[in-house]
């Protein structure tokens, strides 16, 4: 298997975290369009399923934080944001329509279809030649091992990424099933994180970094040669990337900050990483439709896909090179209406990406 590339800064992609969420209501069409206008290569978003089976672009399991509603998503499908300018919460099909507009053909989308991969497949199948033109642009971001087999079953032609905090969890439960990993920035700063990036590169797997809003973190992530950097501040990252491409010396952290940066935040310290990992493990064991011990998924009945080196179900199409993620839940009646659990980090970048 060929190594994945060490990307030059000009080739590192900028993904808008829930759109341009630092300045506009997150996960709205206005936010998505603003991020594209600011130069985003991808749009990261999140997905929930309402009580009537509509897939909405929304991050939290409840409505209270960002909308004029209250309670769970599944109980109230028609809601609007509270942050100005007030926006309706968009549907998944509206997001796909947006990125299929001719001027947006370059854009990738990320969202977290936390359930109903069959419904996502149904929506995608409405587009002509979708398996050739759209599916290769979509990456399914899987935050729980239980999502792996349904991803093969319902959307086998889409690339799979793991979205999480811990590199060790990525290695243990997702390594064989996923072509790439979107990992929290702080967990990649130290030697273990750098080894993970090197091992991914040697195995031909991609690495993305979330959520990077500080300019010095942006500079640091650029030196890693990753596939993509996720940010709330698309304009800032796009401009900084442009400056570094024009003058490579600007990738260096300026002044004395270059010396103390690795010790400038408690999250960068290696002794905090086991605690962050335990937090993720606790969430995986409890905040899902099947609470209990984690198990590595058996992939013996899945054949390898030569396109990205990871297994795909029999009869699947070749994977494309997109950058996004989408957590999902197996399609069984007991899972209907399940809400997304996002308790182990400030960001759960799950998405359906289109590139």
Automatic annotation (TrEMBL):
Residue span, GP-PDE domain: 12-241
Compositional bias of kind Polar residues: 307-317
GO molecular function, one term: phosphoric diester hydrolase activity
CDD domains documented for this protein: GDPD_YPL206cp_fungi (cd08570)
InterPro entries: GP_PDE_dom, PLC-like_Pdiesterase_TIM-brl
A matching Pfam family: GDPD
Region (Disordered): 302-321
GO BP, sorted A to Z: lipid metabolic process
Protein name as annotated: Glycerophosphodiester phosphodiesterase
Protein's organism: Trichosporon asahii var. asahii (strain ATCC 90039 / CBS 2479 / JCM 2466 / KCTC 7840 / NBRC 103889/ NCYC 2677 / UAMH 7654) (Yeast)
